[in-house]
């Protein structure tokens, strides 16, 4: 169990560490970090399902100017780990994940504030012409800050998550029902935020209704619709690129 806890802690650390986002921006989304947590915990499908449920409220998630309404990275990794260890269903896990994400905004703010110190140290090293220390201050300290603020809670959740499960089991049924109700509403909130964005960029609305039609009336699976959407995106991209090339020529 301790090996799994360490690996989950590293996933939680990388989900926030800035260098991981250069490699791939998917670290921002719970469905990716949660899936990795599921693999480490030996339950990849359950991890993906829990992560997808936690991800839904964050579908319309926007970080403007570095501020965020919820820490989706923390919710994805720690929330999925908590759900797997405690045996939570998807609706309850969604609620717990969003609560964790909301509380963890303070962790994000602390992470960004602490890391601002390394920028000044890197600037002083650059003024001295010490490129090795510039690289050091850019990469190393921020990793350990993320490890402490994000990795340590994830480690403790995996090691002591059963305690949380027992605590939830001891709750009155009406509280559990309230969690389930809120967990059912939150995905709709995320989809509503996405629809609000699509409404502002009206060019995307036909694709939304096309996907709805394919699922509702033709009964196509999510995978089939995904492949169909990827083909449309591919065709539009290359036809648009050819048009731009002709205009330039």
Task: Give a short synopsis of this structure.
The chain is mostly helical and about 250 residues long.
Task: Give an overview of the whole structure.
This protein is an all-alpha fold and 249 residues long. It folds into two domains: 2-200, no CATH class; 202-249. The protein is built from eleven helices and no strands. It has helices at residues 2-16, 18-23, 30-40, 44-55, 72-86, 90-103, 105-128, 131-169, 173-200, 205-216, 222-248. It is globular, with a radius of gyration of 21 Å. The chain starts with a helix and ends with a helix. The mean pLDDT is 80.
Write the layout of secondary structure elements.
Blueprint: H1 2-16, H2 18-23, H3 30-40, H4 44-55, H5 72-86, H6 90-103, H7 105-128, H8 131-169, H9 173-200, H10 205-216, H11 222-248
InterPro entries: PTS_IIC_man
Membrane topology: Multi-pass membrane protein
Main location: membrane
